[in-house]
Amino acid sequence: MGSATTQALAATTTALGAGSGVDLDVAGELFAVARAVGDSSQLSGALADSAAAPEARVKVVADVFGRSVKPATVSLLTTAVEQRWSSASDLVDAIEELAVRAAAIAEPTVDVESELFRFSRTVADNPELELALGSRLGGSAAKGSLVETLLKGRASTATTLIVASLVRHPRERRVRQLLSRAMRVVADQRGRAVATVIAAAPLSAAQSERLSAALSQRYGTPVSLNTVVDPSVVGGLRVQIADDVIDASVSTRLADLRQRLAG
């Protein structure tokens, strides 16, 4: 991510936090705009053209989307195109991220991260589902409808909107990659980090609390846990937060020992 995009993303995130009227309709509109902009090189180029005056880019937003989306959506898009982006694809990513954050804001009491994680595990455990959602052969509308059917009564409206919208517009990204990014964005919006914990057996409530507290102290921010049970780790834990991996599993220690004995 270029420095221009980093600064632009910070500005749009701040605008979202300071805005009003952000609801699931706004989130859905932002997802739709991200699809429209991502599918049109002409439109994405015009909106991300740093050589054009910001006023000209804002006019494109008003002309193309002004009459079809809510004022809160127009306001967020206006802030986005006023910024300088490293590339047109970065702008599309940013609009999509705004949509995910808006969905999290719209249902603040729902544990969206956990719902996204559960669905990601369902996908991981079902190769046929992963193929159906990730194949280039299926239509985007059909993929979105499949997600809505699978999550009906099992997940919140916010989570369903996020997942269905992302699989409709994957842009060469794998389904689990989309879900992992969405989890990180939602967690960041709510001021915490997400750790994926791989253990040989389920953690007790006390163990989870101790681990969460230790990680929160280490990273200086609240940390929520998503636990994956994998008997192959034998014992101990493997913890991943963003790009950091803390591997204290027995299987890894045994593998290291075998390597040293063999070498």
Automatic annotation (TrEMBL):
Keyword Ion transport part of the UniProt annotation: yes
Record's GO cellular component terms: plasma membrane; proton-transporting ATP synthase complex
Domain of life: Bacteria
Record keywords: ATP synthesis, Cell membrane, CF(1), Hydrogen ion transport, Ion transport, Membrane, Transport
GO MF entry, a single one: proton-transporting ATP synthase activity, rotational mechanism
Cell compartments where the protein resides: Cell membrane; Membrane
Major location category of this protein: membrane
Membrane-protein topology: Peripheral membrane protein
This protein's record includes keyword Membrane: yes
Coiled coil residues, start to end: none
Role summary: F(1)F(0) ATP synthase produces ATP from ADP in the presence of a proton or sodium gradient. F-type ATPases consist of two structural domains, F(1) containing the extramembraneous catalytic core and F(0) containing the membrane proton channel, linked together by a central stalk and a peripheral stalk. During catalysis, ATP synthesis in the catalytic domain of F(1) is coupled via a rotary mechanism of the central stalk subunits to proton translocation.
HAMAP family recorded: ATP_synth_delta_bact
Family: Belongs to the ATPase delta chain family.
Descriptive protein name: ATP synthase subunit delta
Source organism of the structure: Microbacterium terrae
Gene that produces this protein: atpH
